[in-house]
TrEMBL record, chain A:
Function: Component of the general transcription and DNA repair factor IIH (TFIIH) core complex, which is involved in general and transcription-coupled nucleotide excision repair (NER) of damaged DNA and, when complexed to TFIIK, in RNA transcription by RNA polymerase II. In NER, TFIIH acts by opening DNA around the lesion to allow the excision of the damaged oligonucleotide and its replacement by a new DNA fragment. In transcription, TFIIH has an essential role in transcription initiation. Component of the general transcription and DNA repair factor IIH (TFIIH) core complex which is involved in general and transcription-coupled nucleotide excision repair (NER) of damaged DNA.
Protein name in the entry: RNA polymerase II transcription factor B subunit 2
Gene3D superfamilies linked: 3.30.70.2610
Cellular localisation: Nucleus
DNA repair recorded as keyword: yes
GO BP term, example: nucleotide-excision repair
Main location class: nucleus
A GO molecular-function annotation: RNA polymerase II general transcription initiation factor activity
Record Pfam families: Tfb2, Tfb2_C
Domain (Transcription factor Tfb2 C-terminal): residue spans on this chain: 417-482
Keyword line: DNA damage, DNA repair, Nucleus, Transcription, Transcription regulation
Cellular component terms (Gene Ontology): nucleotide-excision repair factor 3 complex; transcription factor TFIIH core complex; transcription factor TFIIH holo complex
UniProtKB/TrEMBL annotation, chain B:
Domain Helicase ATP-binding intervals: 347-509
Alphabetical UniProt keywords: ATP-binding, DNA damage, DNA repair, DNA-binding, Helicase, Hydrolase, Isomerase, Nucleotide-binding, Nucleus
EC number: 5.6.2.4
Compositionally biased intervals (Basic and acidic residues): 797-813
UniProt organism field: Xylona heveae (strain CBS 132557 / TC161)
Name under which the protein is recorded: DNA 3'-5' helicase
Alphabetical GO biological process terms: nucleotide-excision repair; transcription initiation at RNA polymerase II promoter
Residue ranges of the region described as Disordered: 1-45, 770-813
Any one Gene Ontology cellular component term annotated for this protein: nucleotide-excision repair factor 3 complex
Keyword DNA damage in record: yes
Automatic annotation (TrEMBL), chain C:
Main location: nucleus
Organism: Xylona heveae (strain CBS 132557 / TC161)
GO cellular component, one term: transcription factor TFIIH core complex
Stored InterPro entries: TFB5-like_sf, TFIIH_TTDA/Tfb5
Stated role: In NER, TFIIH acts by opening DNA around the lesion to allow the excision of the damaged oligonucleotide and its replacement by a new DNA fragment. In transcription, TFIIH has an essential role in transcription initiation. When the pre-initiation complex (PIC) has been established, TFIIH is required for promoter opening and promoter escape. Component of the general transcription and DNA repair factor IIH (TFIIH) core complex, which is involved in general and transcription-coupled nucleotide excision repair (NER) of damaged DNA and, when complexed to TFIIK, in RNA transcription by RNA polymerase II. In NER, TFIIH acts by opening DNA around the lesion to allow the excision of the damaged oligonucleotide and its replacement by a new DNA fragment. In transcription, TFIIH has an essential role in transcription initiation.
Gene3D superfamilies the UniProt entry points to: TFB5-like
Record keywords: DNA damage, DNA repair, Nucleus, Transcription, Transcription regulation
SMART domains: Tbf5 (SM01395)
Protein name in the entry: General transcription and DNA repair factor IIH subunit TFB5
The organism's place on the tree of life at top rank: Eukaryota
One biological process term in Gene Ontology: nucleotide-excision repair, preincision complex assembly
Length: 489, 813, 71
């Protein structure tokens, strides 16, 4: 399962049941959750129950699954319950049984068979756009917006140069609130979380950012805090902070976007005020295109239409988009790393170059390739900014040139080891705060207490010879010591 | 401040250049003054001019000036001030079909996985220096010397530029084109040829000829009454290098042609271009020459360089009817390998013998290349070896590969002074014998006279990278030879005297690719590892207190290093490997060997005993590990060895590292299926050894060797009889080392080792890794000599006790 | 009755410990308890300073005897 679905799960699962009820009123949301969030087995359960008129006894359902797949079954069931799709019907006269919840059941039926006037799949404009745009334009627009954001993160926003749109204050703040970057003085520094973010595929990145957006849409207190933090930017165009947005509106809109068609323009008429307001922000992300804020129509970009595609479809779509992003460059592998630590990257993308520059020393640039070296210094510099050696290794592996992929393992093991060692070397002493217990009179007393510390999981070091041990917390031990004499006396 | 420093460096460089600025300096006569210290012989003013001119031949005089072609947010990473942004050099539309990039500084980057790569590689080794050859992308650099070499094997600048353009993905920077053209204008235009014992200045360009004749310095050197001669160029037809199928046409580009299938468009264009070149060449076949006085050859050569026409030295040996022929041929069974042939073909490219250097990894058969060159020229040969031991090996190799009558081989070393019979022959000597002008015994003086009075066809210079530059000047100056062939595994010198070699011997003619030879099974595949040995608190405290020089002893005597060594010996002996353990520190060598009950050899080991131990190691199943001091770095030939453990090493010397690796590259078992040799460097953690180690590995890493770092051996504590396993034992060891340092006796031992090495004719590196005549820092020329003297006297108690100890151990073994 | 002492447990290579001992030797203001070759307890308030001085010291111990100026 992709990281993006994991992230969205975490967020969704934290929502109260009432929110789900409202969310599932939209057929588009029910369909999106069904398509995007559910593993195969869970989908099968839903389909089996969708047109079942009576609750299905637990025992019957369990029989559908082979005994050796019990774990998968339990996981699927548990997920469905957490997403408030499935509930257990308890009836004193009949056995425990499963049923789909409403309105999920109704909405999904509507989504699959059509009908109703919910308009949750968007309303295409019925008049032709005088300034109509095509798919290529939308791809370019989305790329420019999204790359602009990534650029900003790696601290390379050009000074009026090409290679990324100027990033809006709202997005900047969102990245900071999400912990992807830190502002140090006037410099933007990417965090460890930010680097992980960069390493994700684009769909996952979009979800990650949207969830930050959702989290901050709810939280008014967050808004206030950051206003006081940054009085000069109180005019900042951030709707999340200015509106107390309804997460159901926001989520429904996102799920709806996922069901729209690329290249089609849609009308604003059926949108809620929250959703209209959202368009400004989604435009900053490159998820929708709207010529002007006052325009009565909008176009979803590829970033929007792939939001809720299921994994299989997603791969091809995202590959298509990756190609668009790389302007004709071939597939993903573009990095060569040699056993003498020279690194070559077949790229002209300022973004990819900026990412490489985070952990290597670049020296030469050709129109289609950059060359440099990784060294102890360059890796340690990266590590100091919070990037881990494993992240670097995974980045190199993910983007390894097809020539390197012919090797097993793909990356030279000596280089991988060395990158890890450079990190370890930087951590020459492991420091753990806590308490040293010493001066035990008897071995028994020492043993007793050390074992207890171990049992409660606070012990980090012990020397039976010297009758000393070190613990991270002392409260439980102190309590244990206080209680014990009482028992003895 | 920076500019000031630059100025000084320039001056230093100037004075150095001036002293050696004799490409193809053949003159034997005025040597004494020429190589003595300080810039002598020439007026200072002229020195400066020459130095400046040499610098004009450097690419730094042709700076890359283009501004970036792409300006975006990534531009800031490419040091805008330093012009490393080459986005101005546009890609060709079909750049995917081409494997090469060029930068504005003469650096070439090759996709080694490209279908055209093998051909391009061959071309690049001819015109550029390989600087990085790992798995995927190789880097080469165009330098003054590499272009000099390219021109000397017969390529002209047009060829070079055209061929480069064909292979390049991106446009060629105008400054590099200008640079190549500029170099080509002067390189190779002038040759100094020794023909029928007369020296001629030769050129194909009448304008150049006129310019030289009118030159106020060269003009007077011309032999009066001698006619200006015009001849047609001698073709290569008819010459075959001994041992090769057919040596007819060795122009790189054309040889490439033989090998290719013509399927790509790029290739077709490539050949079309080359075809055109050939036509042009035919037009310019006339040669003009004038004779110069023998003793003026040096002057002329120097002046030519000053005029930016460095003279190439060629030997038209087939037309040498003055010097007696030597009866020598390769034995019918002797087969030379493709890369050896390739190297030799560069030397004999146009039917004459060019002087220069061939670079082959240790174990890849440098000696056979030398023997084959001798068999091709068939004139008197003088071989300069690095030690007495190596001199004997050279003789054996000549007898093994060629039909030479052993009586025709003479050896002149400190152990042995023999002459050959007949008019012509081979004499093998050492650099130290040939250059030691002081205190020469009568016999030696006669030998030197013999060496210097004759005219040799070929001078073979072994291991050219270890010899101090002034020794070279002396050898090359005093011994008169028509052609010079330098052989080495690496042109690395920590003293940047490589440039000297190019002008003293000649350009680098060929450099093999280590990884390629290894893949083809010519040299062993080696697994390299660096083992980190933590140092105990107690040891490390002492390490910190010690001065820089003493610190090395704590590093090598680190108990955990000792244990790692023991573990590795156990492990590899059980696998059936034969192991050499190297230590620069004689004290540690002895301590390790004694504790682990294995034989050891160092400079002080007597000859008979040395032979005995070597035989034991070669032949006995019970003797699988040998401890060696620096004497093992070169010359000792131990093809049985399959595993190498380095417990102490000389500072940051990349050369020593490469050379030691060479000890196992020739492993006998290398052709066994899946055979791996092993090379371990043990380094004490958190000490200066760590820094040195990464420096030492730089060269091999650029050849494509990957060094694995090992931080821990599994179950090392279960090694039977693990040394220094208890804190008490470690403490005792520490006390011993401290006591040893106080007594300073370990330094004396090192000095003894050096003395012995010196007596054997070995050459050394100082503690800074630079070549010197003496091995011990602080011990100047004089003290080294004293030690030599002592060595020749009766053995000291130390040596006697050592011998006793050795005998005792042998009985145990 | 056993005693509990507040501090930071430092686990490191023996060589690093040697350096810490050296740093502490001046005014004995860092180490609370020396446990073994690879472990000791130091004052929490001194941890940052200790790390800094360790870095300095480490670069010292790996200095070349003399710059050879090669490369």
């Amino acid at each position: 399962m992709s990281t993006s679905s994991l992230r969205s799960f975490e967020y969704l699962e934290s929502l109260p049941g009432t929110v789900f009820k409202r969310l599932y009123r939209q057929p588009s949301t029910a369909l999106a959750i069904f398509r995007r969030m559910l593993p195969h087995l869970a989908k099968s359960f839903v389909m089996a129950l969708l047109y079942h008129s009576h609750p299905l006894p637990v025992a019957d359902l369990e029989q559908w699954v082979r005994p050796d797949s019990r774990r998968e079954r339990d996981q699927a069931l548990s997920l469905l319950e957490r997403l408030h799709i499935l509930s257990i019907v308890l009836n004193p006269n009949s056995p425990r049984a499963y049923a789909l919840t409403n309105p999920f059941k109704q909405s999904l039926r509507l989504a699959l068979t059509g009908g109703g006037d919910h308009q949750s799949f968007g309303v295409p404009c019925d008049t032709p756009d005088k300034h109509s745009v095509d798919v290529d334009f939308l791809d370019d627009f989305a790329r420019a917006q999204w790359e602009g954001i990534l650029h900003y993160m790696v601290g390379s926003t050009g000074i009026g140069m090409q290679g990324g749109e100027e990033v809006s204050q709202g997005v900047k703040k969102l990245l900071e609130l999400g912990g992807l970057v830190e502002i140090k003085g006037r410099r933007v520094e990417i965090t460890q979380a930010g680097f992980s973010f960069l390493l994700q595929e684009i769909n996952a990145q979009v979800w990650t950012l949207l969830i930050f957006y959702l989290e901050n849409a709810e939280s008014v207190s967050d808004m206030r805090r950051f206003r006081t933090l940054d009085p000069f930017r109180s005019q900042a165009n951030i709707s999340v902070c200015q509106l107390n947005m309804d997460p159901v509106d926001v989520l429904s809109f996102l799920f709806m976007l996922g069901s729209l068609e690329l290249g089609q323009d849609y009308s604003l008429t059926t949108l809620t005020p929250t959703q209209v307001k959202m368009l400004d922000d989604l435009r900053d992300f490159g998820i929708v295109y709207q010529r002007k804020s006052s325009s009565r129509r909008f176009y979803p970009t590829r970033l929007a239409t792939t939001l809720t595609s299921d994994a299989g479809a997603l791969r091809t779509v995202s590959a298509g988009f990756d190609n668009a992003l790389r302007a004709g460059g071939d597939s993903k592998g573009f990095i060569v790393i040699e056993t003498n630590y020279r690194i070559y990257a077949y790229t002209s993308s300022p973004l990819q170059i900026a990412v490489l520059a985070l952990f290597s020393r670049l020296s030469t640039r050709y129109p289609n390739m950059v060359a440099g070296r990784i060294s102890r210094e360059s890796i340690r510099r990266a590590i100091q900014t919070g990037i881990t050696s494993d992240q670097i290794i995974s980045y190199l592996g993910t983007h390894a040139h097809p020539q390197m992929r012919k090797n097993v393992p793909v990356l030279p093991p000596t280089v991988v080891d060395q990158i890890r060692l450079w990190q370890i070397e930087g951590e020459r002493m492991k420091a753990t705060g806590g308490f040293l217990f010493k001066d035990f009179v008897t071995a028994e007393e020492y043993d007793n207490l050390a074992n207890y510390a171990d049992e409660v999981g606070v012990l980090v070091w012990r020397s039976d010879k010297r009758r000393m041990f070190f613990v991270t917390r002392h409260e439980q031990i102190a309590a244990y010591l206080r209680n014990r004499p009482k028992k003895l006396t | 401040m920076a500019s000031k420093r630059k100025a000084t460096q320039g001056a230093v460089k100037a004075s150095r250049m001036s002293r050696i600025s004799t490409p193809g300096s053949v003159t034997p006569r005025r040597i004494e003054s020429d190589y003595s210290h300080g810039p002598s012989g020439l007026p200072d003013q002229r020195n400066t001019i020459i130095a400046q001119n040499v610098q004009k031949l450097d690419i730094s005089s042709f700076p890359y000036m283009l501004s970036p072609g792409i300006i975006d947010s990534a531009s800031e990473y490419f040091q805008p001030g330093q012009k490393r942004d080459l986005t101005a050099l546009k890609l060709k539309p079909d750049h995917h079909n081409r494997p090469l990039w060029i930068d504005g500084w003469g650096k070439l980057t090759l996709e080694n996985f490209h279908p055209l790569a093998p051909r391009v590689q061959d071309f690049l080794t001819t015109i550029a220096e390989p600087t990085s050859r790992p798995a995927f992308l190789h880097e080469y650099r165009l330098t003054t010397h590499s272009l000099y070499a390219a021109v000397s094997v017969g390529l002209n600048p047009k060829d070079i530029i055209r061929t480069l353009k064909l292979f390049l993905k991106n446009e060629m920077p105008p400054n590099v084109i200008a640079y190549i053209t500029h170099c080509g204008k002067s390189y190779g235009k002038v040759k100094i040829v020794l023909k029928s014992n007369k020296y001629f200045v030769e050129t194909a360009d009448p304008a150049v000829l006129q310019m030289l004749l009118k030159d106020p310095e060269i003009g007077p050197c011309r032999v009066q009454n001698a006619e200006e001669i015009t001849t047609s160029v001698s073709t290569m037809a008819g010459l075959a290098i001994a041992g090769t199928k057919d040596a007819a046409d060795m122009r790189v580009a054309e040889r490439v042609e033989d090998q290719v299938e013509r399927n790509s468009r790029v290739e077709e264009v490539y050949y079309a271009a080359l075809g055109e070149d050939d036509d042009e060449d035919d037009v310019q076949d006339a040669l003009h020459a004038f004779q110069i006085e023998d003793e003026k050859v040096g002057t002329v050569a120097q002046r030519c360089l000053a005029l930016l026409y460095p003279a190439l030295q060629e030997y038209d040996f087939r037309n040498d009817y003055i010097n007696a022929n030597l009866e020598i041929d390769l034995r019918p069974a002797t087969q030379i390998r493709p890369y050896q042939e390739q190297g030799l073909s560069k030397m004999f490219g146009n039917g004459r013998a060019k002087s220069g250097i061939i670079v082959l990894p240790c174990g890849a058969g440098k000696t056979l290349v030398g023997v084959t060159a001798a068999c091709t020229i068939k004139k008197g040969v003088v071989v300069l070896a690095t030690s007495n031991m190596s001199a004997i090996q050279w003789k054996n190799e000549f007898v093994k590969w060629s039909s030479i009558n052993p009586d025709n081989i003479a050896i002149f070393s400190s152990d042995c002074k023999s002459l050959f019979t007949g008019n012509s022959g081979i004499i093998i000597t050492t650099y130290s014998m040939a250059t030691n002008s002081r205190e020469r015994a009568h016999e030696s003086a006669n030998m030197i006279k013999f060496l210097q009075s004759r005219e040799w066809g070929l001078m073979l210079l072994d291991e050219v990278h270890v010899v101090p530059a002034e020794m070279f000047r002396s050898v090359i100056g005093t011994i008169k030879s028509h052609a010079k062939l330098g052989l080495t595994a690496t042109l690395l010198r920590e003293d940047d005297k490589i440039e000297d070699l190019n002008f003293l011997i000649g350009p680098k003619l060929y450099e093999a690719n280590w990884m390629e030879l290894s893949q083809q099974g010519h040299i062993a595949t080696v697994q390299c590892a660096e083992v980190w040995c933590p140092m105990s608190t107690e040891f490390y405290e002492e390490y910190m207190k010690a001065n820089a020089r003493n610190r090395s002893l704590f590093c090598v005597m680190n108990p955990s290093k000792f244990q790692a060594c023991q573990y590795l010996i156990n492990y590899h002996e059980n696998r059936g490997d034969k192991i050499i353990v190297f230590s620069d520190s004689v004290y540690a060598l002895e301590a390790y060997a004694r504790k682990l009950m294995r034989p050891y050899l160092y400079g002080g080991t007597g000859n008979a005993e040395r032979q005995e131990i070597l035989d034991l190691f070669r032949n006995s199943q019970h003797c699988n590990t040998l401890f060696l001091s620096k004497i093992g770095d070169t010359s000792l030939d131990l093809p049985e060895a399959t595993c190498l453990i380095q417990i102490s090493s000389q500072y940051g010397s990349r050369r020593q590292e490469a050379q030691r690796l060479g000890r196992i590259l020739r492993a006998k078992r290398r052709s066994e299926e899946g055979f791996n040799a092993f090379f371990y460097s043990l380094v004490s953690k958190d000490t200066v050894e760590m820094v040195f180690s990464s420096r030492r590995q730089a060269f091999l890493a650029d050849q494509g060797y990957a060094f694995k770092v090992i931080t821990h051996f599994k179950n090392i504590e279960k090694t039977p009889d693990l040394a220094f396993a208890t804190p008490e034992a470690r403490h005792e060891l520490l006390q011993k080392v401290i006591a040893e340092l106080e007594s300073k006796s370990w330094k004396q031992e090192e000095e003894r080792e050096s003395a012995a090495l010196l007596a054997d004719g070995n050459l050394f590196y100082g503690p800074d890794g630079k070549p010197s005549r003496t091995a011990v820092s602080g011990a100047g020329d004089r003290s080294a000599k004293k030690i030599v003297k002592r060595k020749s006297g009766p053995h000291s108690d130390f040596f006697r006790s050592l011998r006793r100890e050795n005998e005792r151990r042998k009985k145990l073994a | 009755m056993p005693k509990a002492v507040k501090g930071v447990l430092v686990q490191c290579d023996p060589s690093i410990k040697a350096i810490i001992l050296k740093i502490d030797a001046l005014d004995h203001d860092f180490i609370v308890e020396d446990l073994d070759d690879q472990t000791l307890v130091v004052k929490e308030s001194k941890l940052v300073e200790l790390k800094q001085r360790l870095e300095d010291e480490l670069s010292n111990t790996q200095q070349m005897p003399e710059e050879s100026g090669s490369e």
